[in-house]
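Ticket #4471: structure export looks truncated?
Reporter: QA, pipeline team
Priority: medium

Steps to reproduce: submit the single chain below to the structure queue and open the exported record.
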Amino acid sequence: MAHIKFNPVRERKHQNRFTQAGEDLINQMGKVKPYPVILNGPAGCGKTQAVEAYIKRNKLSSEHVGCHPGLDIIDVIGGWQAKAGDDGRPIMEWVDGPYTRACRNGDIMLLDEGTRLNQQHIGRLMGSLDETRLLTLTENGGEAIKIHPNFQVIITGNPPAVGYNTVNFDEALKSRAMIYKYITDPLCDEKATISDILGGDEAYVSAFMNFASDLRADGSTAISTRDLCYIAKMVGRGFQAIEAIQLNYRDKVQEDKRGVVMTAASAHFEA
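Actual output as written to the record:
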């Protein structure tokens, strides 16, 4: 393809567009409610976007925890916090965390990037994920919460290795999921989304898709839907495509693969 130059006057807004597989998954999460769902797959393939669409379309309330290895159980379950009493003296008060609030209120609990969660924390949640439907707060005098019938846990995760600071999902956790799905292909309709962002310039959209296809021929340079959309949005803010690729994506791959990224960029876009 000839090098293409594109100069939009402003960034275009876009709506989430899903593939048929994405639409099916959104529907399937509702069919299995209130049982747990685990979605595993590469970063940026649309897992969290699909969960958020499921929540929004069904007008559900939700809690959201972004997991990481240093996450304290207090940030998930809750804990005792100091507050001023009526006489001004400090007193301790139990405050529910997002997971406990969701259990009480019947919300959707999204544990994003669950493969980065400390496994001892997963063990604390097991009773709330099976047929017992109980959450025991040992920190709060052993209070046993009978979980609301509408409470549903959805966990997303990235596979170990390939640059992610993650571990495999615990087998006991996987066994409690009514849906356990490994996402292999983007859940977002990339071409339609990129077309939205770029205002329908089909030649430029094709250049984006061909660029992505080149990078995905090698797993070490494969670009996510999220990064592809970010680059398109940067173009919509006045960056040239090659400049946007340099700033957004080139340095996200291993050093010895950065030349591959820029060669693919120069094959499809004008500097």
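Status: closed, not a bug. The export was complete when the record was re-opened. Leaving a note from the reviewer for reference: The chain has ten helices and nine strands.
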